[in-house]
Design brief:
The complex is a heterodimer. Chain A is α/β, with parallel strands linked by helices. Helix content of chain A is 33%, strand content 27%. The chains are: A alpha/beta, B alpha/beta.
Protein backbone atom coordinates (compact mmCIF):
# COMPACT_ATOMS: atom_id res chain seq x y z
CA UNK A 1 0.00 0.00 0.00
CA UNK A 2 1.36 3.41 -0.99
CA UNK A 3 -0.32 6.65 -0.19
CA UNK A 4 -0.48 10.05 -1.79
CA UNK A 5 -1.95 12.90 0.23
CA UNK A 6 -3.72 15.70 -1.60
CA UNK A 7 -3.49 18.83 0.52
CA UNK A 8 -3.43 22.64 0.41
CA UNK A 9 -2.89 25.56 2.73
CA UNK A 10 -5.90 27.51 1.52
CA UNK A 11 -9.30 25.87 1.52
CA UNK A 12 -11.41 25.42 -1.57
CA UNK A 13 -8.52 25.17 -4.03
CA UNK A 14 -9.65 21.84 -5.46
CA UNK A 15 -8.18 19.12 -3.22
CA UNK A 16 -11.25 16.93 -3.47
CA UNK A 17 -11.51 17.50 -7.23
CA UNK A 18 -7.91 16.37 -7.70
CA UNK A 19 -8.25 13.42 -5.30
CA UNK A 20 -11.40 11.92 -6.80
CA UNK A 21 -10.49 12.51 -10.45
CA UNK A 22 -7.00 11.14 -9.92
CA UNK A 23 -8.49 8.03 -8.33
CA UNK A 24 -10.86 7.73 -11.30
CA UNK A 25 -8.13 7.67 -13.97
CA UNK A 26 -5.67 5.47 -12.07
CA UNK A 27 -5.42 1.73 -12.63
CA UNK A 28 -6.85 -0.12 -9.62
CA UNK A 29 -6.93 -1.15 -6.93
CA UNK A 30 -7.33 2.36 -5.56
CA UNK A 31 -8.84 3.80 -2.41
CA UNK A 32 -9.67 7.34 -1.37
CA UNK A 33 -9.42 8.26 2.30
CA UNK A 34 -11.41 11.37 3.18
CA UNK A 35 -9.40 12.89 6.02
CA UNK A 36 -11.16 16.26 5.81
CA UNK A 37 -13.21 14.94 8.70
CA UNK A 38 -14.70 18.31 9.63
CA UNK A 39 -16.24 18.71 6.18
CA UNK A 40 -15.89 15.44 4.25
CA UNK A 41 -17.02 15.73 0.62
CA UNK A 42 -15.52 12.77 -1.26
CA UNK A 43 -18.74 10.76 -0.86
CA UNK A 44 -20.61 13.40 -2.87
CA UNK A 45 -18.50 12.48 -5.91
CA UNK A 46 -17.93 8.78 -5.25
CA UNK A 47 -21.10 7.47 -3.67
CA UNK A 48 -21.09 4.05 -2.11
CA UNK A 49 -24.18 1.95 -1.55
CA UNK A 50 -23.48 -0.31 1.36
CA UNK A 51 -21.19 1.01 4.01
CA UNK A 52 -19.65 -0.37 7.14
CA UNK A 53 -19.50 2.22 9.88
CA UNK A 54 -17.33 2.25 13.00
CA UNK A 55 -17.42 4.84 15.71
CA UNK A 56 -14.26 6.65 16.75
CA UNK A 57 -13.74 7.44 20.38
CA UNK A 58 -11.30 9.08 22.74
CA UNK A 59 -10.52 7.17 25.95
CA UNK A 60 -11.58 9.54 28.73
CA UNK A 61 -11.18 9.01 32.47
CA UNK A 62 -13.90 7.67 34.73
CA UNK A 63 -13.18 8.11 38.40
CA UNK A 64 -14.21 5.50 40.96
CA UNK A 65 -15.33 7.75 43.80
CA UNK A 66 -15.05 4.89 46.28
CA UNK A 67 -11.33 4.71 45.65
CA UNK A 68 -10.57 8.38 44.92
CA UNK A 69 -9.03 10.25 47.86
CA UNK A 70 -9.10 13.58 45.96
CA UNK A 71 -5.34 13.88 46.23
CA UNK A 72 -5.44 15.94 43.03
CA UNK A 73 -2.47 14.26 41.37
CA UNK A 74 -4.43 13.61 38.15
CA UNK A 75 -5.55 17.23 37.89
CA UNK A 76 -2.01 18.49 38.46
CA UNK A 77 -0.71 16.12 35.82
CA UNK A 78 -3.24 16.83 33.06
CA UNK A 79 -1.79 19.27 30.54
CA UNK A 80 -5.18 19.92 28.99
CA UNK A 81 -7.06 20.95 32.14
CA UNK A 82 -9.48 18.10 31.58
CA UNK A 83 -9.54 17.25 35.27
CA UNK A 84 -10.51 19.80 37.89
CA UNK A 85 -9.68 19.42 41.57
CA UNK A 86 -12.75 20.80 43.39
CA UNK A 87 -11.39 19.72 46.79
CA UNK A 88 -14.39 17.56 47.61
CA UNK A 89 -14.16 15.72 44.30
CA UNK A 90 -12.40 15.56 40.94
CA UNK A 91 -14.45 16.79 37.99
CA UNK A 92 -13.78 15.49 34.47
CA UNK A 93 -14.19 17.86 31.52
CA UNK A 94 -14.56 15.31 28.72
CA UNK A 95 -14.39 17.83 25.87
CA UNK A 96 -10.90 18.91 26.89
CA UNK A 97 -9.48 15.38 27.20
CA UNK A 98 -6.93 14.30 24.59
CA UNK A 99 -7.04 10.68 25.71
CA UNK A 100 -3.36 10.44 26.64
CA UNK A 101 -4.04 8.03 29.51
CA UNK A 102 -1.70 9.89 31.85
CA UNK A 103 -4.23 10.32 34.66
CA UNK A 104 -4.90 6.59 34.88
CA UNK A 105 -1.17 6.01 35.22
CA UNK A 106 -0.43 8.69 37.82
CA UNK A 107 -3.38 7.91 40.12
CA UNK A 108 -1.86 6.38 43.27
CA UNK A 109 -5.17 4.71 44.21
CA UNK A 110 -5.84 3.13 40.83
CA UNK A 111 -9.17 4.92 40.94
CA UNK A 112 -9.26 5.89 37.26
CA UNK A 113 -10.35 3.70 34.38
CA UNK A 114 -10.98 4.76 30.80
CA UNK A 115 -14.20 4.76 28.84
CA UNK A 116 -14.58 5.53 25.15
CA UNK A 117 -16.29 8.80 24.38
CA UNK A 118 -17.51 8.79 20.78
CA UNK A 119 -16.40 11.87 18.82
CA UNK A 120 -16.93 10.73 15.26
CA UNK A 121 -17.10 7.81 12.87
CA UNK A 122 -15.37 6.16 9.96
CA UNK A 123 -17.25 4.42 7.20
CA UNK A 124 -16.09 2.51 4.18
CA UNK A 125 -17.67 1.24 1.02
CA UNK A 126 -16.95 0.71 -2.66
CA UNK A 127 -18.18 3.19 -5.26
CA UNK A 128 -19.75 2.37 -8.63
CA UNK A 129 -16.36 3.18 -10.19
CA UNK A 130 -14.83 0.38 -8.07
CA UNK A 131 -13.00 2.83 -5.84
CA UNK A 132 -12.89 2.06 -2.14
CA UNK A 133 -13.94 5.11 -0.15
CA UNK A 134 -13.04 5.48 3.51
CA UNK A 135 -14.59 8.54 5.12
CA UNK A 136 -13.94 10.07 8.52
CA UNK A 137 -16.58 12.29 10.06
CA UNK A 138 -16.16 14.41 13.18
CA UNK A 139 -19.36 14.86 15.17
CA UNK A 140 -20.72 18.41 15.09
CA UNK A 141 -19.69 20.26 18.24
CA UNK A 142 -16.52 18.22 18.78
CA UNK A 143 -13.20 20.09 18.70
CA UNK A 144 -10.54 17.45 18.09
CA UNK A 145 -10.28 16.13 14.57
CA UNK A 146 -6.83 14.40 14.69
CA UNK A 147 -8.11 11.22 16.45
CA UNK A 148 -10.69 10.73 13.67
CA UNK A 149 -8.06 11.44 11.01
CA UNK A 150 -5.71 8.90 12.58
CA UNK A 151 -8.53 6.34 12.69
CA UNK A 152 -9.06 6.77 8.94
CA UNK A 153 -5.36 6.48 8.22
CA UNK A 154 -5.10 3.25 10.20
CA UNK A 155 -7.29 1.47 7.63
CA UNK A 156 -5.36 -0.94 5.45
CA UNK A 157 -6.16 -0.90 1.77
CA UNK A 158 -4.80 -2.69 -1.25
CA UNK A 159 -2.90 -0.84 -3.95
CA UNK A 160 -2.77 2.93 -4.03
CA UNK A 161 -4.37 5.18 -1.43
CA UNK A 162 -5.28 8.79 -2.14
CA UNK A 163 -5.74 10.87 1.01
CA UNK A 164 -7.97 13.96 0.83
CA UNK A 165 -6.47 16.19 3.54
CA UNK A 166 -8.08 19.07 5.44
CA UNK A 167 -7.06 22.65 4.58
CA UNK A 168 -4.60 24.68 6.61
CA UNK A 169 -1.21 23.88 8.05
CA UNK A 170 -2.13 23.02 11.65
CA UNK A 171 -2.30 19.66 13.40
CA UNK A 172 -5.21 18.20 11.35
CA UNK A 173 -3.23 18.83 8.16
CA UNK A 174 -0.15 17.23 9.74
CA UNK A 175 -2.12 14.23 10.98
CA UNK A 176 -3.55 13.63 7.50
CA UNK A 177 -0.31 13.90 5.50
CA UNK A 178 2.01 12.15 7.99
CA UNK A 179 3.25 8.81 6.67
CA UNK A 180 2.40 9.54 3.03
CA UNK A 181 4.86 8.60 0.30
CA UNK A 182 4.14 11.84 -1.50
CA UNK A 183 2.04 14.96 -0.99
CA UNK A 184 0.32 16.79 -3.84
CA UNK A 185 -0.33 20.42 -2.92
CA UNK A 186 -3.22 21.93 -4.85
CA UNK A 187 -3.24 25.68 -5.21
CA UNK A 188 -4.88 28.39 -7.23
CA UNK A 189 -2.68 31.10 -8.75
CA UNK A 190 -4.20 33.93 -6.67
CA UNK A 191 -2.29 35.90 -4.02
CA UNK A 192 -4.17 34.03 -1.23
CA UNK A 193 -3.52 30.69 -2.89
CA UNK A 194 0.18 31.39 -3.46
CA UNK A 195 0.69 32.72 0.07
CA UNK A 196 -0.92 29.68 1.66
CA UNK A 197 0.94 27.34 -0.72
CA UNK A 198 4.15 28.80 0.73
CA UNK A 199 2.95 28.06 4.28
CA UNK A 200 1.98 24.48 3.38
CA UNK A 201 5.33 23.96 1.61
CA UNK A 202 7.21 25.15 4.70
CA UNK A 203 5.21 22.75 6.85
CA UNK A 204 6.00 19.82 4.54
CA UNK A 205 9.69 20.79 4.46
CA UNK A 206 9.69 20.75 8.27
CA UNK A 207 8.04 17.32 8.19
CA UNK A 208 10.58 16.17 5.57
CA UNK A 209 7.85 14.96 3.21
CA UNK A 210 8.36 15.01 -0.57
CA UNK A 211 5.77 16.97 -2.51
CA UNK A 212 4.76 18.38 -5.87
CA UNK A 213 2.28 21.08 -6.86
CA UNK A 214 -0.88 21.19 -8.99
CA UNK A 215 -2.28 24.52 -10.15
CA UNK A 216 -6.05 24.57 -10.27
CA UNK A 217 -7.85 27.36 -12.17
CA UNK A 218 -4.53 27.87 -13.92
CA UNK A 219 -3.98 31.01 -15.95
CA UNK A 220 -3.06 34.49 -14.83
CA UNK A 221 -0.75 34.34 -11.80
CA UNK A 222 0.82 30.94 -12.52
CA UNK A 223 4.32 32.44 -12.38
CA UNK A 224 3.87 33.11 -8.65
CA UNK A 225 3.21 29.40 -8.12
CA UNK A 226 6.21 28.46 -10.27
CA UNK A 227 8.34 30.74 -8.08
CA UNK A 228 7.23 28.87 -4.92
CA UNK A 229 8.06 25.55 -6.66
CA UNK A 230 11.56 26.81 -7.53
CA UNK A 231 12.15 28.09 -4.01
CA UNK A 232 11.31 24.69 -2.53
CA UNK A 233 12.89 22.67 -5.34
CA UNK A 234 9.71 20.77 -6.14
CA UNK A 235 8.04 19.96 -9.46
CA UNK A 236 4.88 21.46 -10.91
CA UNK A 237 2.90 18.30 -11.65
CA UNK A 238 -0.13 19.54 -13.57
CA UNK A 239 -2.26 22.55 -14.47
CA UNK A 240 -6.02 22.41 -14.52
CA UNK A 241 -7.23 25.43 -16.46
CA UNK A 242 -9.76 27.99 -15.30
CA UNK A 243 -12.95 26.74 -16.93
CA UNK A 244 -16.41 27.62 -15.75
CA UNK A 245 -17.67 24.21 -16.96
CA UNK A 246 -15.41 22.51 -14.39
CA UNK A 247 -16.89 24.65 -11.62
CA UNK A 248 -20.39 23.81 -12.82
CA UNK A 249 -19.68 20.06 -12.99
CA UNK A 250 -18.19 20.26 -9.49
CA UNK A 251 -21.25 22.11 -8.21
CA UNK A 252 -23.41 19.16 -9.33
CA UNK A 253 -21.15 16.57 -7.72
CA UNK A 254 -19.84 15.22 -11.04
CA UNK A 255 -16.36 13.94 -11.79
CA UNK A 256 -14.55 16.29 -14.16
CA UNK A 257 -13.04 13.43 -16.18
CA UNK A 258 -16.52 11.99 -16.82
CA UNK A 259 -18.38 15.26 -17.45
CA UNK A 260 -15.59 16.80 -19.53
CA UNK A 261 -13.54 13.92 -21.03
CA UNK A 262 -11.08 16.36 -22.60
CA UNK A 263 -9.57 16.78 -19.13
CA UNK A 264 -8.87 13.09 -18.72
CA UNK A 265 -5.44 13.53 -20.29
CA UNK A 266 -4.43 16.20 -17.74
CA UNK A 267 -5.28 13.88 -14.83
CA UNK A 268 -3.47 10.98 -16.54
CA UNK A 269 -0.46 13.24 -16.88
CA UNK A 270 -0.70 14.00 -13.17
CA UNK A 271 -0.86 10.28 -12.45
CA UNK A 272 2.26 9.66 -14.57
CA UNK A 273 4.15 12.50 -12.87
CA UNK A 274 3.25 11.06 -9.49
CA UNK A 275 4.38 7.58 -10.56
CA UNK A 276 7.68 9.07 -11.74
CA UNK A 277 8.19 10.78 -8.39
CA UNK A 278 7.38 7.59 -6.49
CA UNK A 279 9.60 5.45 -8.71
CA UNK A 280 12.56 7.63 -9.67
CA UNK A 281 14.43 4.62 -11.09
CA UNK A 282 11.63 3.71 -13.43
CA UNK A 283 10.59 0.46 -11.75
CA UNK A 284 6.86 0.04 -11.51
CA UNK A 285 6.75 -1.88 -8.24
CA UNK B 1 -21.88 60.38 23.32
CA UNK B 2 -19.92 57.31 22.47
CA UNK B 3 -20.78 54.33 24.57
CA UNK B 4 -17.39 53.78 26.12
CA UNK B 5 -18.43 50.92 28.33
CA UNK B 6 -20.48 49.14 25.75
CA UNK B 7 -19.00 45.86 24.62
CA UNK B 8 -18.15 45.68 20.94
CA UNK B 9 -20.41 43.48 18.85
CA UNK B 10 -18.54 40.46 17.51
CA UNK B 11 -19.45 38.97 14.14
CA UNK B 12 -17.71 35.87 12.83
CA UNK B 13 -17.49 35.19 9.11
CA UNK B 14 -17.13 31.44 8.64
CA UNK B 15 -17.85 28.90 5.93
CA UNK B 16 -17.46 25.24 6.80
CA UNK B 17 -15.99 24.55 3.40
CA UNK B 18 -12.81 26.48 2.67
CA UNK B 19 -12.23 28.95 -0.13
CA UNK B 20 -15.76 30.30 -0.40
CA UNK B 21 -14.73 33.93 -0.06
CA UNK B 22 -14.68 34.58 3.70
CA UNK B 23 -11.57 36.73 3.64
CA UNK B 24 -12.53 38.84 0.60
CA UNK B 25 -15.94 39.49 2.15
CA UNK B 26 -14.54 40.24 5.62
CA UNK B 27 -12.08 42.74 4.14
CA UNK B 28 -14.86 44.45 2.19
CA UNK B 29 -17.10 44.59 5.27
CA UNK B 30 -14.23 46.08 7.26
CA UNK B 31 -14.03 48.96 4.78
CA UNK B 32 -17.79 49.51 4.93
CA UNK B 33 -17.97 49.24 8.73
CA UNK B 34 -15.47 52.09 9.30
CA UNK B 35 -13.42 51.68 12.45
CA UNK B 36 -14.26 48.05 13.13
CA UNK B 37 -11.54 45.98 14.73
CA UNK B 38 -10.59 43.14 12.45
CA UNK B 39 -9.47 39.79 13.87
CA UNK B 40 -7.98 37.28 11.43
CA UNK B 41 -8.70 33.99 13.17
CA UNK B 42 -7.68 31.75 10.28
CA UNK B 43 -4.39 31.47 12.11
CA UNK B 44 -2.81 28.67 10.08
CA UNK B 45 -3.57 30.16 6.68
CA UNK B 46 -4.03 33.86 7.35
CA UNK B 47 -4.59 35.97 4.24
CA UNK B 48 -6.45 39.06 5.36
CA UNK B 49 -3.21 41.03 5.72
CA UNK B 50 -2.62 40.60 1.98
CA UNK B 51 -5.53 42.90 1.19
CA UNK B 52 -5.70 45.11 4.29
CA UNK B 53 -1.89 45.50 4.30
CA UNK B 54 -1.61 46.60 7.91
CA UNK B 55 1.39 48.14 9.60
CA UNK B 56 2.50 45.76 12.36
CA UNK B 57 2.81 47.63 15.66
CA UNK B 58 3.45 44.77 18.08
CA UNK B 59 4.65 41.19 17.67
CA UNK B 60 4.07 38.66 20.44
CA UNK B 61 5.29 35.09 20.78
CA UNK B 62 2.55 32.55 21.18
CA UNK B 63 3.70 30.14 23.85
CA UNK B 64 1.29 27.34 24.55
CA UNK B 65 1.60 23.86 25.94
CA UNK B 66 4.80 21.87 26.01
CA UNK B 67 6.79 19.62 23.76
CA UNK B 68 8.62 16.46 24.82
CA UNK B 69 12.28 16.34 23.81
CA UNK B 70 14.40 13.26 24.55
CA UNK B 71 18.03 13.89 25.51
CA UNK B 72 19.51 11.17 23.34
CA UNK B 73 22.79 11.07 25.28
CA UNK B 74 20.90 10.14 28.44
CA UNK B 75 18.37 7.82 26.78
CA UNK B 76 18.91 4.17 27.64
CA UNK B 77 16.68 2.93 24.85
CA UNK B 78 14.14 1.11 27.01
CA UNK B 79 11.27 2.26 24.78
CA UNK B 80 8.77 2.86 27.56
CA UNK B 81 8.06 6.32 26.07
CA UNK B 82 7.10 4.73 22.78
CA UNK B 83 4.92 2.14 24.47
CA UNK B 84 3.07 4.77 26.51
CA UNK B 85 2.63 7.36 23.73
CA UNK B 86 -0.92 7.34 22.35
CA UNK B 87 -0.02 9.55 19.39
CA UNK B 88 2.67 7.41 17.75
CA UNK B 89 5.02 10.35 18.25
CA UNK B 90 8.05 8.38 19.51
CA UNK B 91 10.35 6.63 17.05
CA UNK B 92 13.50 4.54 17.43
CA UNK B 93 16.62 6.07 15.88
CA UNK B 94 20.28 5.09 15.85
CA UNK B 95 22.44 7.56 17.78
CA UNK B 96 25.88 8.59 16.42
CA UNK B 97 27.50 6.14 18.84
CA UNK B 98 25.48 3.25 17.37
CA UNK B 99 23.02 2.79 20.25
CA UNK B 100 19.28 2.55 19.60
CA UNK B 101 17.62 5.52 21.27
CA UNK B 102 14.26 7.23 20.93
CA UNK B 103 13.21 10.53 19.42
CA UNK B 104 9.96 12.49 19.57
CA UNK B 105 8.39 13.68 16.31
CA UNK B 106 7.47 17.26 17.27
CA UNK B 107 4.68 17.34 14.70
CA UNK B 108 2.96 14.31 16.22
CA UNK B 109 3.58 15.14 19.90
CA UNK B 110 0.47 16.52 21.62
CA UNK B 111 2.40 17.62 24.69
CA UNK B 112 0.60 15.37 27.19
CA UNK B 113 3.72 14.77 29.28
CA UNK B 114 3.18 11.04 29.84
CA UNK B 115 6.63 10.08 28.51
CA UNK B 116 8.26 12.88 30.52
CA UNK B 117 6.68 11.65 33.74
CA UNK B 118 7.40 7.96 33.27
CA UNK B 119 10.88 7.91 31.71
CA UNK B 120 12.78 5.71 34.19
CA UNK B 121 15.98 7.75 33.77
CA UNK B 122 14.35 11.21 33.54
CA UNK B 123 15.91 11.83 30.14
CA UNK B 124 12.99 13.71 28.60
CA UNK B 125 12.76 17.51 28.75
CA UNK B 126 9.45 19.34 28.49
CA UNK B 127 10.08 22.90 27.29
CA UNK B 128 7.34 25.42 26.51
CA UNK B 129 5.84 25.06 23.05
CA UNK B 130 6.56 27.98 20.71
CA UNK B 131 3.47 27.66 18.58
CA UNK B 132 3.67 30.85 16.55
CA UNK B 133 3.27 34.60 16.78
CA UNK B 134 0.45 37.09 16.96
CA UNK B 135 0.39 40.70 15.93
CA UNK B 136 -1.37 43.94 16.75
CA UNK B 137 -1.45 46.10 13.67
CA UNK B 138 -3.03 49.16 12.19
CA UNK B 139 -4.85 48.76 8.92
CA UNK B 140 -6.54 51.62 7.11
CA UNK B 141 -9.83 50.18 8.34
CA UNK B 142 -8.69 50.49 11.97
CA UNK B 143 -7.02 48.14 14.45
CA UNK B 144 -6.25 44.64 13.27
CA UNK B 145 -5.14 41.56 15.20
CA UNK B 146 -3.71 38.59 13.32
CA UNK B 147 -1.44 35.63 13.87
CA UNK B 148 0.78 33.02 12.39
CA UNK B 149 0.67 29.51 13.77
CA UNK B 150 3.95 27.59 13.57
CA UNK B 151 3.92 24.92 10.83
CA UNK B 152 1.95 21.84 11.86
CA UNK B 153 1.50 23.21 15.39
CA UNK B 154 -1.05 22.29 18.02
CA UNK B 155 -3.16 24.76 19.97
CA UNK B 156 -4.64 26.68 17.05
CA UNK B 157 -7.83 27.09 19.09
CA UNK B 158 -5.92 28.77 21.90
CA UNK B 159 -4.23 31.10 19.42
CA UNK B 160 -7.65 32.03 18.02
CA UNK B 161 -8.83 32.80 21.56
CA UNK B 162 -5.73 34.94 22.12
CA UNK B 163 -6.37 36.89 18.91
CA UNK B 164 -9.99 37.50 19.89
CA UNK B 165 -9.02 38.61 23.38
CA UNK B 166 -6.52 41.10 21.93
CA UNK B 167 -9.16 42.31 19.46
CA UNK B 168 -11.55 43.01 22.33
CA UNK B 169 -8.82 44.98 24.12
CA UNK B 170 -8.21 46.95 20.92
CA UNK B 171 -11.92 47.67 20.56
CA UNK B 172 -12.08 48.91 24.11
CA UNK B 173 -9.03 51.12 23.68
CA UNK B 174 -10.13 52.58 20.33
CA UNK B 175 -13.83 52.87 21.13
CA UNK B 176 -14.59 50.47 18.29
CA UNK B 177 -18.12 49.11 18.45
CA UNK B 178 -17.67 46.12 16.17
CA UNK B 179 -15.21 43.25 15.84
CA UNK B 180 -15.15 41.40 12.54
CA UNK B 181 -13.75 37.90 12.93
CA UNK B 182 -12.41 36.23 9.78
CA UNK B 183 -12.87 32.59 10.75
CA UNK B 184 -11.10 29.41 9.71
CA UNK B 185 -12.76 26.70 7.59
CA UNK B 186 -14.16 23.51 9.11
CA UNK B 187 -16.11 22.91 12.32
CA UNK B 188 -13.34 21.86 14.72
CA UNK B 189 -11.31 23.41 17.50
CA UNK B 190 -10.25 26.75 15.91
CA UNK B 191 -13.75 27.33 14.49
CA UNK B 192 -15.34 26.74 17.87
CA UNK B 193 -12.85 29.20 19.37
CA UNK B 194 -13.67 31.73 16.63
CA UNK B 195 -17.47 31.66 17.08
CA UNK B 196 -18.15 31.19 20.79
CA UNK B 197 -19.66 34.30 22.29
CA UNK B 198 -20.17 36.14 19.00
CA UNK B 199 -23.45 37.93 18.32
CA UNK B 200 -23.83 36.41 14.88
CA UNK B 201 -22.07 34.06 12.51
CA UNK B 202 -22.26 34.94 8.85
CA UNK B 203 -21.76 31.78 6.82
CA UNK B 204 -20.39 32.31 3.31
CA UNK B 205 -21.42 29.44 1.07
CA UNK B 206 -21.01 28.57 -2.59
CA UNK B 207 -23.81 26.93 -4.59
CA UNK B 208 -22.21 23.49 -4.86
CA UNK B 209 -23.22 20.13 -3.42
CA UNK B 210 -20.13 20.29 -1.21
CA UNK B 211 -21.07 23.78 -0.08
CA UNK B 212 -24.61 22.68 0.74
CA UNK B 213 -23.38 19.64 2.67
CA UNK B 214 -20.82 21.66 4.64
CA UNK B 215 -23.30 24.44 5.38
CA UNK B 216 -25.57 21.95 7.09
CA UNK B 217 -22.76 20.94 9.43
CA UNK B 218 -21.61 24.47 10.16
CA UNK B 219 -25.18 25.60 10.92
CA UNK B 220 -25.38 22.58 13.22
CA UNK B 221 -22.32 23.91 14.98
CA UNK B 222 -23.88 27.38 15.40
CA UNK B 223 -27.02 25.77 16.83
CA UNK B 224 -24.92 23.58 19.14
CA UNK B 225 -23.40 26.72 20.66
CA UNK B 226 -26.63 28.74 20.49
CA UNK B 227 -25.27 31.40 18.16
CA UNK B 228 -27.61 33.08 15.66
CA UNK B 229 -26.54 32.45 12.06
CA UNK B 230 -27.16 34.07 8.68
CA UNK B 231 -25.94 33.07 5.24
CA UNK B 232 -24.62 34.72 2.12
CA UNK B 233 -24.35 32.75 -1.13
CA UNK B 234 -21.19 33.72 -2.98
CA UNK B 235 -20.84 33.07 -6.75
CA UNK B 236 -24.57 32.31 -6.72
CA UNK B 237 -24.76 32.40 -10.54
CA UNK B 238 -22.52 29.28 -10.87
CA UNK B 239 -25.67 27.29 -10.08
CA UNK B 240 -28.75 29.50 -9.47
CA UNK B 241 -31.11 26.60 -8.67
CA UNK B 242 -28.79 25.24 -6.02
CA UNK B 243 -28.28 28.76 -4.63
CA UNK B 244 -32.01 28.99 -4.10
CA UNK B 245 -32.21 25.53 -2.55
CA UNK B 246 -29.35 26.37 -0.17
CA UNK B 247 -31.05 29.59 0.92
CA UNK B 248 -34.33 27.76 1.49
CA UNK B 249 -32.56 25.02 3.48
CA UNK B 250 -30.75 27.60 5.58
CA UNK B 251 -34.01 29.45 6.27
CA UNK B 252 -35.55 26.21 7.55
CA UNK B 253 -32.66 26.01 9.98
CA UNK B 254 -33.28 29.56 11.15
CA UNK B 255 -30.52 31.21 9.14
CA UNK B 256 -31.82 33.86 6.79
CA UNK B 257 -29.99 34.97 3.66
CA UNK B 258 -28.53 38.45 3.93
CA UNK B 259 -27.45 38.70 0.32
CA UNK B 260 -26.05 37.08 -2.77
CA UNK B 261 -22.79 37.88 -4.51
CA UNK B 262 -22.21 36.98 -8.16
CA UNK B 263 -19.11 35.43 -9.68
CA UNK B 264 -17.06 38.52 -10.48
CA UNK B 265 -13.49 38.61 -11.79
CA UNK B 266 -13.07 41.83 -9.79
CA UNK B 267 -12.79 39.74 -6.60
CA UNK B 268 -9.58 38.06 -7.74
CA UNK B 269 -8.39 41.28 -9.36
CA UNK B 270 -8.74 43.06 -6.00
CA UNK B 271 -6.57 40.36 -4.38
CA UNK B 272 -3.92 40.73 -7.09
CA UNK B 273 -3.88 44.48 -6.60
CA UNK B 274 -3.71 44.09 -2.82
CA UNK B 275 -6.91 45.89 -1.97
CA UNK B 276 -10.51 45.07 -1.21
CA UNK B 277 -13.44 44.30 -3.49
CA UNK B 278 -15.00 47.63 -2.47
CA UNK B 279 -11.93 49.49 -3.78
CA UNK B 280 -12.14 47.51 -7.00
CA UNK B 281 -15.85 48.25 -7.57
CA UNK B 282 -18.22 46.27 -9.78
CA UNK B 283 -21.25 44.08 -9.20
CA UNK B 284 -19.71 42.07 -6.35
CA UNK B 285 -18.83 45.30 -4.54
CA UNK B 286 -22.39 46.58 -5.00
CA UNK B 287 -23.86 43.37 -3.64
CA UNK B 288 -21.52 43.37 -0.64
CA UNK B 289 -22.79 46.88 0.13
CA UNK B 290 -26.28 45.41 0.12
CA UNK B 291 -25.12 42.59 2.39
CA UNK B 292 -23.67 45.14 4.80
CA UNK B 293 -26.96 47.08 4.92
CA UNK B 294 -28.88 43.88 5.66
CA UNK B 295 -26.36 42.88 8.28
CA UNK B 296 -26.74 46.23 10.04
CA UNK B 297 -30.51 45.88 9.94
CA UNK B 298 -30.28 42.36 11.36
CA UNK B 299 -28.14 43.64 14.25
CA UNK B 300 -30.29 46.76 14.78
CA UNK B 301 -27.34 49.06 14.11
Amino acid sequence: MRSIAVASGKGGTGKTTVAVNLARVMPGPVSVMDCDVEEPNVHLFLSTESRQTHSVGIPVPRIDTNKCTVCGECARFCEFNALGDMRSKIVVFNELCHGCGGCTRVCPENAITEVQRVIGEVDQGVSAQDIRVITGRLNVGEALSPPVIRAVRRYKAEGMVIVDAPPGTACPFAAAVRGSDLVVLVTEPTPFGIHDLGLAAETLDAMKLPFGVVINRSGEGDEGVEEVCRRHGVPLLARIPEDRRIAEAYSRGELVVDALPQYREEFLKLYRSITDMLNPNGDES
Amino acid sequence: MTAVNQKAIEIAVISGKGGTGKTSITAALAVLARNAVVADCDVDAADLHLVLRPEVLETHDFISGHEAVIRELDCRGCGLCRDYCRYDAVNAVIAPDGREVFRVDPGACEGCGVCVRFCPVQSIDFPDGHCGEWFISRARTGPMVHARLAPGAENSGKLVSRVREAAREQAKASGGTMILVDGPPGIGCPVIAAVTGTRLVLVVVEPTLSGEHDLERVLGLARHFNIPAAVCVNKWDINPELAQRIEAGARERGAESLGRIPFDAAVTRAQVRGHTVIDEGGQAAEDIRGLWQNLKKKLNL
